[in-house]
Amino acid sequence: MQLGIVGLGKMGSNMRERIRRAGHTVVGYDRTPELSDVKSLAELVGQLDAPRHVWVMVPAGTATQTVIDELRDLLSPGDTVIDGGNSRWTDDEKHAAELGVRGIGFVDAGVSGGVWGLEHGYALMVGGDKERVERLRPVFDALKPEGPYGFVHAGRVGAGHFSKMVHNGIEYAMMQAYAEGWELLEKVDSVENVREVFRSWQEGTVIRSWLLDLAVNALDEDQHLEGLRGYAEDSGEGRWTVEAAIDNAVPLPAITASLFARFASRQEDSPQMKMIAALRNQFGGHAVEKTD
Description:
This protein folds into two domains: 2-157, NAD(P)-binding Rossmann-like Domain (Rossmann fold, 3-Layer(aba) Sandwich), CATH 3.40.50.720; 164-268, N-(1-d-carboxylethyl)-l-norvaline Dehydrogenase, domain 2. The chain is elongated, with a radius of gyration of 23 Å. It has helices at 10-21, 41-46, 62-74, 89-100, 117-120, 130-135, 137-143, 159-187, 194-200, 210-221, 237-247, 253-264, 271-284, and strands spanning 2-6, 25-29, 53-56, 80-83, 105-112, 123-127, 151-155. By secondary structure, it is α/β, with parallel strands linked by helices. The mean pLDDT is 93. InterPro entries: 6-PGluconate_DH-like_C_sf, 6DGDH_YqeC, 6PGD_dom2, 6PGDH_C, 6PGDH_NADP-bd, 6PGdom_BS, NAD(P)-bd_dom_sf, Pgluconate_DH.
């Protein structure tokens, strides 16, 4: 099968390689010339036989919209665009409608696997018309992990990215729980080897997971994480998960708290805690720390 990939960053380039290893033809385009197989999107489209399939793997928002706008003018009826980035699910129906006017199909694919996907495979959550999804199954089968799991046709357009968004929201909460447990263990004098405690959890416990394995990897590299600053960004999908929960009246206390914890990590001197300290001093005479 032939496939075009637009966007050859860490995941895009590895996905190109994994699909090629499965025996398929992949033509990749990236704005960085040394990563690209062709010099332009037009050249990429020109190297594919109809019906063409082009996988977009660029940042969500403006970058994705720009590529889809260009492809809309380059592709033909019967071709398909797959958005494999972390686009917001509400953009998928818009993109499907914009391409549909020209007779071009649209499939959204939530992709999980990060830098490990090349060797271990990518979990794929896909939304779109059943016929187009089935036509792309050789590519999905090449990307997914070996075995019966790792791919799902989640539903109509938008379902793939919505499913991936919820996956990332759960990931936020799981990471926060591991982080809180690690901090508490580090705080207690009686626990002398926190790293090995984490390692002991990798077998036979109900909290073992790939995230736990990655936490042990990180502690092996820097046992007390002294080389890191306590600052964490968010990709946007945690926010979208919380917004969707509000829209659907679904309580998500753990995921919401984990998102707010990331916001707190960006404050060296929390304004909220200043008010908390002031109030504790006012009603209870509790000591406060003064700035220099």
